[in-house]
């Protein structure tokens, strides 16, 4: 099965389970960006981020005997919640391995979505060892966050929807800006656009100082960030592009873009004010790129993915002071 | 033409112009409400509220010669922005008469959406006289905010969508909670449901102390609020139900519900946290009713309209401290 066929098959499995998010716009954002801006609010997806799509895609594709033994994931963030809900909607168990110093709210939310949360001590324990032991003991299947073809296929359904929605609007050519961590969402979208909207080009967006994908694309090989923490865009601070995702990004994507924390906060504030959606810092880097990197973007329309909205109330309230 | 046919005709005129908003949900809200809660986020509509629908419905129905002379409205709020954008998308002029002490941001926004804003002094001038003089001089058509059949028909398209979406989900019976000011949205939805989903029942929701519609329904005749200001739910503080809307509400709606300001703020915070949408206080009273008046609601599913999201950043940041 080709990558595109895998995405189409994932779309079939997601039908009636994932939300088809709309495209939003505002004349005020168009004015700021100097071109038409269309925003795909994946913050409105189940569990507040696109991650539900990949999790559902992977879990729904397991053979029934394997699936009924349950799944496991390592994550303290959006992937954890996506896996927990997708598993519980399939009626199966999920185990999420999280650091014991993760915010209590995230632990509580993941449990409330039906997962068993197993905590480990970051300083003295290895989550991989704990996870491998649990998986072996119970026959759990590991759901990786991005470097997994079925997860990429699920995230690619965002790209299928963008291709359809752009066609309805008569848009044949545009940059599609995507918040990029390990590259699962960006590579999935790029594959879907290659097949269904070849005039649309995916471009990864990252925080400045954590622009491993942008630099990897420039150098033609995987390069890493020197830091993996210390930026408010926590959802997309992966050390480097994935081994499966990077070749896809390299073949299909336009140059990467990067923005400052302040620009991400301004984009969050503008999305609040003009679109009435809640986006988290990592989910705001593509909108920030559209608004504040206009000279690096081509065409009279830009499509932006707002990938998630799981942000602490205090941080969000602070962002609202950044309305330009 | 029957009321239902007017709504269906309005839906035809709105197609491709208004957004078809989705139905959102969250297991966390279901848990709080003790039943399934489905939220229709009209805050995601153009200009951040359902008012765009009624404005577009009325303007698009004018005969071309009348329309090209332009329209006028009295409003400092959501209706103003809806009329301004609907007029400018029709390529016609709009005049919005606003009090000179309206917040500068609202004046600026209305102008930016293409309207000519005419300011008047609340203490010494009558907006009706100013408006009538301008209308006569320029041949402008007045677009009323709610007591106008074409406006009610436009708002009724929310009800058509709810009927369709409920059917897709297999929901045959439910209360539909609607934030209610003058009653344009509630009566339009009630008429649409009567025709297309007779098992769904519209119910008006209001702030405590400004529950003129709830009391009017109880007494069977129009009664007024003693105050028309002094509550954060500014978008729905009308003095009394409309003369056209009230007979519709009386014939079709279930009993009204009312909530406190604190409950509206909590509902805003929960919509932020669980649905990733921005709703204003007046737009949150239906969700607040679903969450905090569970004993007054019937059935295992409740549908809630979140009617608008035009809220000042400071007020919104304050609401986020109300997460229960």
From TrEMBL, chains A, B:
<dbReference type="InterPro" id="IPR036052">
    <property type="entry name" value="TrpB-like_PALP_sf"/>
</dbReference>
<dbReference type="InterPro" id="IPR001926">
    <property type="entry name" value="TrpB-like_PALP"/>
</dbReference>
<keyword id="KW-0663">Pyridoxal phosphate</keyword>
<protein>
    <submittedName>
        <fullName>Threonine ammonia-lyase</fullName>
    </submittedName>
</protein>
<keyword id="KW-0456">Lyase</keyword>
<dbReference type="GO" id="GO:0070179">
    <property type="term" value="P:D-serine biosynthetic process"/>
</dbReference>
<dbReference type="GO" id="GO:0030378">
    <property type="term" value="F:serine racemase activity"/>
</dbReference>
<dbReference type="Pfam" id="PF00291">
    <property type="entry name" value="PALP"/>
</dbReference>
<dbReference type="GO" id="GO:0018114">
    <property type="term" value="F:threonine racemase activity"/>
</dbReference>
<keyword id="KW-0460">Magnesium</keyword>
<dbReference type="GO" id="GO:0003941">
    <property type="term" value="F:L-serine ammonia-lyase activity"/>
</dbReference>
<dbReference type="GO" id="GO:0030170">
    <property type="term" value="F:pyridoxal phosphate binding"/>
</dbReference>
<dbReference type="GO" id="GO:0000287">
    <property type="term" value="F:magnesium ion binding"/>
</dbReference>
<comment type="similarity">
    <text>Belongs to the serine/threonine dehydratase family.</text>
</comment>
<feature type="domain" description="Tryptophan synthase beta chain-like PALP">
    <location>
        <begin position="16"/>
        <end position="308"/>
    </location>
</feature>
<dbReference type="GO" id="GO:0005524">
    <property type="term" value="F:ATP binding"/>
</dbReference>
<dbReference type="InterPro" id="IPR000634">
    <property type="entry name" value="Ser/Thr_deHydtase_PyrdxlP-BS"/>
</dbReference>
């Amino acid at each position: 099965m080709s990558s595109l066929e895998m995405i189409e098959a994932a779309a079939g499995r997601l039908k009636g389970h994932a939300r088809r998010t709309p495209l939003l716009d505002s004349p005020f954002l168009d004015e700021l960006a100097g071109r038409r801006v269309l925003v795909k609010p994946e913050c409105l997806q189940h569990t507040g981020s696109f991650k539900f799509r990949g999790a559902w895609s992977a879990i729904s594709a397991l053979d029934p005997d394997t699936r009924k033994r349950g799944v496991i994931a390592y994550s303290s963030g959006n992937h954890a919640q996506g896996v927990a809900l997708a598993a519980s909607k399939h009626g199966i168990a999920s185990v999420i391995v999280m650091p014991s110093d993760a915010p209590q709210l995230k632990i509580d939310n993941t449990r409330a979505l039906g997962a068993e949360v197993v905590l480990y001590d970051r300083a003295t324990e290895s989550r991989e060892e704990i996870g491998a032991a649990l998986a072996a003991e119970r026959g759990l299947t590991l759901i990786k966050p991005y470097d997994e073809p079925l997860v990429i296929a699920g995230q690619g359904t965002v790209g299928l929807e963008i291709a359809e929605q752009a066609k309805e609007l008569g848009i044949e050519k545009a940059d599609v800006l995507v918040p990029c961590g390990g590259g699962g969402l960006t590579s999935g979208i790029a594959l879907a656009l290659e097949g269904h909207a070849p005039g649309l080009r995916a471009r990864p967006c990252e925080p400045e100082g954590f622009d491993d994908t942008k630099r990897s694309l420039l150098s033609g090989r995987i390069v890493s960030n020197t830091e993996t923490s210390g930026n408010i865009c926590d959802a997309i601070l992966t050390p480097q592009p994935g081994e499966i995702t990077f070749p896809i990004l390299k073949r299909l994507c336009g140059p990467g873009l990067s923005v400052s924390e302040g620009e991400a906060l301004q984009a969050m504030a503008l999305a609040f004010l003009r679109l009435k959606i809640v986006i988290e810092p990592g989910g705001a880097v593509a909108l920030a790129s559209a608004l504040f990197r206009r000279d690096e973007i081509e065409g009279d329309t830009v499509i932006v993915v707002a990938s998630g909205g799981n942000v602490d109330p205090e941080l969000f309230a602070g962002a609202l002071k950044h309305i330009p």
